[in-house]
Amino acid sequence: MGTATVSAPRPEASAQPLFVLPRRRSTAAALTALLVVQAVLFVTVSHRSFFFAEDFINFKLVQDRFFVRYVFTPILGVYPAPGERLATYVLYKLFPLNFWAAQIFLVVLLAVATTLLWQLVRTFANRDEWWTVTLLAPFALSLTLVVPMAWWAAGIPILPALIFTEVAIAAWLRAYTNPNPTFWIVVSVVAVTAAGAFYIKFLLIPVYLLFLRLVVFPRLAGVSGGIRLLWQERWRWMALAVPPAAYLAVFVLSGIASRSSTEGARPYLEYFAVAWSRAVIPVSFLNARLEGSNASATSWIIILLSQIVFWGLVAVTWKRSALALRGWVLFVLVFGVNVGMVGAVRLSSFGVGIAYTLRYYPEIVLFVPLTLALALRDGQERRPESAWEQRPWARVGMAVAACLLVIPFFIWAPRMVEAKPGIKTRIWYENLRSDVEALTAGDSVPRIVDSETPWYVMPDWMAPTNRVSTILSLAHIDVKYNESPARTYLVRNDGRLAEAEFRQISVLVSSSTSAPGVRVLGGSFGGPAVCFGEGGRLEYRPDKDVTGDRLTIRVTYYRASRLPVAMKVDAHDATRPFRILELHPSESEVELVDLATSQLRALTLEASPGDSVCVEQMEIGSLVARSI
User: Fold this and answer.
1) What is the average pLDDT score of the chain?
2) Which residues, in sequence order, are bridge partners of residue 552?
3) E strand or H helix at 614, and its extent?
4) HEC secondary structure over 80-94
5) Could you tell me the pTM of the whole model?
6) Which of 606, 469, 472 shows the shortest CA–CA distance to 533?
7) Ramachandran region of residue 609, left (φ > 0), alpha (ψ -120 to 50) or beta?
8) Would you state the pLDDT for residue 178?
């Protein structure tokens, strides 16, 4: 590995352990207090949340796929993340649908990230004093972490990636202060690789390290600066480039990049302006959140006050230390590359409004404490006459400022959790589970009409996985679906069960007769049933759309079939025109199937290859709920 040209090392850059415990009791007490407050705050605001949307998709994949195939399945077909997949696999296998277990794991990850961040702050500031812990508050109590702490699918990629980013920075610095840098270069490369196993933003870590090497490390580690020295260090930089290069090769050559790209306008200038003034600066320095392009007086006050705080800190710290400006340039760089990366992927699909999504910014807020640590560093660049942090009033002021961040946290954090579907999903799931378990008393297996979940549990675009049967199977609850002869229940929008009553609208098929608009292709129409086999199908296209609340078909089979029957429903819906469902003649003689629509233009049944189906009677109607 190439080594850096080193000038006389500074005393503070001498070889030390990578991570150490606070040496002073006051510092240890302050850090412990911060971690306790952090855990209490995040658990308090997010404990009512639950899994939703992508969480259920991922758990279903755990259930359906072999381990290796699951781990290397790209997240929603967008980017590979085997580390995130592995964590989700372990969580589901050990604690299926247990949100408390998920939350404890996320809290531990956040505590680890905060503790490692203090280690970097201690190194950057060259201090081990209690007030350095207050510099962590903008990150430790940040609103950018609220949604990741309340939503497993958002938290599990972000938090481990933050941890490995911190390890990579610490090890890269260590490689310049240790006589034998090879080990620390390897540690940093491994950390970058591990971050890439969780989150695509790991691609930005080499950018951070390059800037730190050229602009910050010459002051921290006593190494010579200048771009020309990078050639002498080429082997370490080539090693660092291997994980991102390999990731991008897989990303491009596998076709994931082309599949995930979208067409559309990308107004970057407006996007960057909104992200800077209305999202990143307010949340980084006031822990405040603006809800969309609101032009209220309160919004403008927050924008103005956050800019005053930001530029005030720049001015005060620049006066104190020549290193402060480098720290603030680092912060702006991190802002630019992170926002730019999000915009490149999301801007064309979601527009400028994506700038208000705070869960995209923990990586930026992570660098606020590091920037402040550089600005308050106890080193040769400090101007002693301007070292105001030595005065008692300044230290008390920093502690008070850190404590004040709790106030906006309690103002906005509960709203952010309530705006997500987690709380509604928990209520729906607990209602469903309690009602099913009540019916299961006495070893009986309840019968339920399988239906789509409400949008907040799993949205429409997740069809056909967005079914009640998906949730109950993930919870390992045994239920029979769509069997009509015995008492059957439907699931209401609040998760409660109600006895299902089928109210007929019309008979489509009955022995040798059929309703207008029904035709059979590649089959027989006569005798006691309508039969069709492979290549054949039954079509129903009425003169005018059939409408009704919770449209359902009831099918009576003349004989059982071995395989499912594919059913395609034309719902005359501009946003989601078709419903793809299945009939299961092998499981029941009479079957009720919820069509997941209130309007039907056409319906098609098609037998599986190598099989046939015979329908004695088929009716269309509505399901009506009777309270249990």
Assistant:
1) 88
2) 594, 621
3) strand 612-627
4) CCHHHHHHHHHHHHH
5) 0.89
6) 606
7) beta
8) 84
Cβ atoms within 10 Å, residue 504: 11
Q: Which residues pair with 347 in a beta bridge?
A: none
Kind and range of the H or E run holding 335: helix 323-350
pLDDT digits (tens, 9 = 90+) for 341-365: 999 888 888 888 899 999 999 999 9
Q: In 3D, which of 580, 582, 585 has the Cα closest to residue 613?
A: 585
Strands 497-510 and 513-514: antiparallel
Residue 447's Cβ-side half-sphere holds a number of Cα atoms within 13 Å equal to 15
State both tokens at 543.
């003169």
Q: Which residues pair with 523 in a beta bridge?
A: 532
pLDDT in tens, 258-315: 666 666 677 889 999 999 999 999 999 999 999 877 778 889 999 999 999 999 999 9
Task: Tell me the pLDDT band of 387, cut-offs 50, 70 and 90.
Answer: low
Prior bond of 464 cis (ω within 30°): yes
d(CA 84, CA 563): 35
Three-class secondary structure assignment of 398-464: HHHHHHHCHHHHHHHHHHHHHHCCHHHHHHHHHHHHHHHHHHCCCCCCCEECCCECCCCCCCHHHCC
Cα-based distances in Å from 390 to 28, 362, 376: 19, 30, 10
Residue 372 contacts by C-beta under 8 Å, 6 or more apart in sequence? 121, 135, 313, 317, 327
| Cα–Cα separations (whole angstroms), residue 446 to 338, 472, 477, 590, 595 | 50, 12, 10, 16, 21
Q: What is the pLDDT of residues 177-218, one digit of tens each?
A: 888 889 999 999 999 999 999 999 999 999 999 999 999 988
| C-alpha of 571 from chain center | 31
Q: How many CB atoms neighbour CB 183 within 10 A? A: 13
108-to-19, 42, 105, 149, 153 alpha-carbon distances in Å: 18, 11, 5, 11, 16
Inter-residue contact 595 to 581 (CB < 8 Å): yes
Rounded distance, CA 381 to CA 73, Å? 50
C-alpha distances in Å from residue 82, one per residue of 57, 149, 198, 252: 15, 20, 7, 17
Q: At what angle do helices 362-375 and 99-125 cross, to 10 degrees?
A: 30
Any residues with CB less than 8 A from the CB of 524 and at least 6 apart, and which?
Answer: 530, 531, 532
The per-residue pLDDT for 179 is: 81
Q: Do strands 612-627 and 497-510 pair parallel, antiparallel, or not at all (unpaired)?
A: antiparallel
CA distance 371 to 444: 63
Element (H, E) at 209: helix 205-211
Helices 25-46 and 406-419 cross at an angle (nearest 10°) of 30
Q: Say how far apart CA 415 and CA 139 lie, in whole Å.
A: 19
**How many whole angstroms separate alpha carbon 221 and alpha carbon 592?**
72
| The two structure tokens encoding residue 194 | 């591990």
Query: CA angle at residue 185 from 179 to 188, to 5 degrees?
Result: 135
- Mind giving me the DSSP string for 512-540? TEE-TTEEEEEEEEETTEEEEEEEEEEEE
